[in-house]
Amino acid sequence: MPFPIIGWAVGAAAVAVAGVVYKMWNNDEDSSNSNENTKYEYDSTIIIGPQQSGKTHLANWLTHHKLLDEYNPTDYKMNINNFMDCSGHYEDAHYWENDIQDNKNIFYLFDLKKYIEKNSISNQEYNNVVVNQVSFITEYLTKKDSFKSKKILIIGTHLDKIDNNKAQQIVSELKSKISLGNAKILYGSLDNEENASKLEEKIIKALKEF
After folding, report:
1. Which residues contact 57 (CB under 8 A, 6 or more apart)?
2. pTM for the structure as a whole
């Protein structure tokens, strides 16, 4: 009689150990899958910049992972989940100051192609408008205590319309003309889902580096 009891006990122990090992392995697998499927949670973010720079497109992509089929200008401002999408009508960036104060992140978007071609906005060259607006954010606002902790991303869009070397030239020019402080510059495109995903990866990486 003792032998069967011992055999049964050993067998039961083996089954228990196997069950624990399987559970640990299965939990690891579930954890891995869970990490892969975890969506990045954005803090409150204001998206500003000149007209047709992709502000509404970016807010929709980061919120719903859907690209808009057409361009619809934002008349004033609208909230898309955690993103405040502001009108690009304002050449004077002071109009954005109060809304900027209410958000943790600042995304400033501009069109790379229009910048390098020096398109006109209200009798001003596009590149000069961008330089003035960015300097207002990075040099004027960040001197105020209430703005010092904000994460600022300067995002060039429409990379699909120019080559990478020209984009690098624009970044170098902005760095030479403006004191960026802790602000980060990146660029990409929203012309299709693949490029939108690449741009989003850059944005998430930049936010995590602050």
Report:
1. 67, 68, 190
2. 0.81
